[in-house]
Amino acid sequence: MNISMKFEKKILSFGKKLIKEEINALSKVQRNLNINFSKAVNLINNTKGNIVFSGVGKSKLILEKTCGTFSSLGISSYVLDANQATHGSLGNLKNNDTLIIASNSGNTNELLAIFKFAKKYKIKIIGISSNSKSQLFKNSDINIVYPKVKEIGDNNFKLVPTSSTTALTVIGDALAISVAKLKGFTIKDFSQAHPGGSIGKALTPIKDLLITGKNIPFVKSGDSFSKILSVVASKRLGCALVKDKNSKKISIVTDGDCSRAASKFKNLSLVKAKDIMTKNPSYANEKTLAPDALSVMNKKRITVLLVKSKRKFKGLISLHSILEFLSKWYQTKIKQIFF
Fold first, then answer.
1. Is 243 in the same domain as 181?
2. Residue 13 in contact with residue 155, Cβ under 8 Å?
């Protein structure tokens, strides 16, 4: 059944209202966050074993996502299924682990066995709930208590977990990023944890895509205009690098420089590389990420970047080489999906 434009706008307005309600709920959570959050971050940071998440129902699903975030940040963690705790799963817990248990009500019966086990083996518990009078609160070493928030929608939806699960999600995210910040986590660490997929490609340093050795189009400062054109055409990078034996500096002649020279000079047979080269070409560090290199090229309107490490020339990277690298990956993924 098709709906009218008027009704579509009404639905859109309703959707925006619901999102606004969740934003208001998160603002309430933010205002009520206290020093216990810092204590929880410190405990997680100093944990020698694993960070073990546990919950029931929707809380467990949210914690699985949080656990994934922790793992992606290099923080050893796993999810303990509270329903399986009394059937042998508790045996995985070690006294140098830290438990993060979440429950909106804090009075979930399935968690009782975990409380007893943790107390017996002196395993620290960080409890996350909205109930300061709950069993979870009483059995936790550190409590992060968020205020009771109204689930979005009218009374027909007041029992549907929405704002409360969003609150748990953002608290989990805040814990993960805060701990990673404390550990001195960098984008390089993240790339090592994500070697594949689109994230891995986005975090590829340009040193992995370098054009080096005989593939670099070199000419000498005294080389003729015709020699420059020949080298530029043969290497198909749109440039030639100018380097002499007695000089450590590298200059560049681009195809754009060649075009301008053709208009500027009447007798091109007299033009040498030194007459048209750019003496201070753009450089990038070899640790620069591929997307960042593309951004620099786009901003400076260039298609080639020279690459260095500790002030030493390592090679060059071209716009084409980065795009080709990404293109091959996408083609491979498409084949995996459709063939």
1. no
2. no
Residue 296 belongs to domain with CATH number: 3.10.580.10
Choose one of 128, 150, 185: the last residue of a domain. 185
Look up the pTM and report it: 0.64
Q: Is 319 left (phi over 0), alpha (psi -120 to 50) or beta?
A: alpha
- Cα separation of 23 and 34, whole Å? 19
Pairing of strands 239-242, 218-219: parallel
Examine the domain organization and report whether 157 and 210 are in the same domain. no
Q: Quote the CA–CA distance of 299 and 295 in Å, as a whole number.
A: 6
Whose CA is closest to 221, among 193, 261, 253, 265?
Answer: 253
Q: What is the pLDDT of residues 281-292, one digit of tens each?
A: 889 999 888 878
Per-residue CA distances from 285 to 156, 239, 291, 297, 306 (Å): 58, 20, 13, 14, 9
pLDDT in tens, 141-177: 999 999 999 999 988 988 898 999 999 999 999 999 9
Q: What is the CATH number of the domain that holds 60?
A: 3.40.50.10490
The amino acid that residue 296 corresponds to is: V
Our measurement of the distance from residue 228's CA atom to the centroid of its chain's CA atoms, rounded to an integer in Å, reads 42
Order of all β-strands in the sheet with 218-219: 218-219, 239-242, 251-254
Q: What is the DSSP letter of 250?
A: -
The span from the CA of 75 to the CA of 67, in Å, is 9
Residues 36 and 162 in one domain: yes
For 15-30, the pLDDT digits (tens) are: 999 999 999 999 999 9
Same domain, yes or no: 162 and 222: no
Residues 170 and 131 grouped into a single domain = yes
